[in-house]
Amino acid sequence: MIPTQFGDWREEQQNAVQIFNLKVQAYLDRIYSEIVERVYINAGGYRIMLSVAYGTDQRLLRHVPEGCYTGQGFVLHHKERSQLVTPFGTIPVGRLYVSKGPRVEPITWWTTIGDKAPKQWQGMLTRLGYMVTGKIPDGLVFRVSSIDKDKARAIRMQDQFVNELMLSISPEDRKRLSGRGHLQLQKENGV
User: Fold this and answer.
1) What is the C-alpha separation between 77 and 61, in angstroms, rounded?
2) Within 10 Å of residue 48's Cβ, how many Cβ atoms?
3) Is the dihedral of CA 157, 80, 184, 117 positive or negative?
4) How confident is the model over 126-173, as pLDDT tens digits?
5) What is the dihedral of CA 169, 173, 179, 181, to 10 degrees?
6) Distance of alpha carbon 116 from alpha carbon 135, whole angstroms
7) Element (H, E) at 152
8) Which helix (H) or strand (E) holds 12?
9) b/e map of 69-84 (b: 16 or more CB within 10 Å)?
10) Going from the N-terminus, what domains does the chain have, and what CATH number goes with each?
11) How many CA atoms does the CB half-sphere of 142 hold within 13 Å?
12) DSSP 8-state symbol, 160
């Protein structure tokens, strides 16, 4: 589903994410059935780390980046809710700014539950809605980050990366990754 090359980005052969805590890795292996971790690089040499963790049962609380990073010794300096604008509509995202020693890592992330990408506060309501119907929703955590002390540049590059990825995949795959079933290419007049 996720190409190794798209737009100005190509996969760089290395480990995308280092899990520093073996208990964290064991927990991730238990709650997710598939995890894709890659590092991409563009022609200018900018690197983006991508992690997509998919689980078949999202009735319980998911593993989210702020817990993962702080659990591995990173300092959480700031978090905010935002909207990532794409040619297909907007995706509600979280933005984190973390560091560990000299490593500064801005992060953009979102989750899906079933076919929805709820805002953080709506996640529990979405889960309850599935529980009432007896359905077991799948879902994922989609995260991109870069090691970059310039937060504005990092966000700009991460947004560009996500947009180029969304443009390169099928509408079905775009729906799965974004949780936004209505994401269809919008015309220039916004319709």
Assistant:
1) 23
2) 25
3) positive
4) 444 544 555 555 578 899 999 999 999 999 999 999 999 999 999 988
5) 90
6) 14
7) helix 151-168
8) strand 9-12
9) beeeebeeeeeeeeeb
10) 5-178 (3.40.1000)
11) 25
12) H
Beta bridge partners of 41: 10, 47
Write the CA distances from 21 to 4, 57, 60, 91, 95, integer angstroms: 27, 24, 22, 30, 23
**What gap in Å lies between CA 126 and CA 33, rounded to an integer?**
21
Please report where in the chains the tokens 């991730």 appear, as a residue.
Answer: 28
State the DSSP string of 79-144.
EEEEEEEETTEEEEEEEEEEEETTEEEEEEEEEEETTB---GGGHHHHHHHHHHHT----EEEEEE
| Residue (of 52, 44, 41) closest to 17 by Cα position | 52
User: In this predicted model, what pLDDT tens digit does every residue of 113-135 receive, in sequence order?
Assistant: 655 555 554 544 444 454 455 55
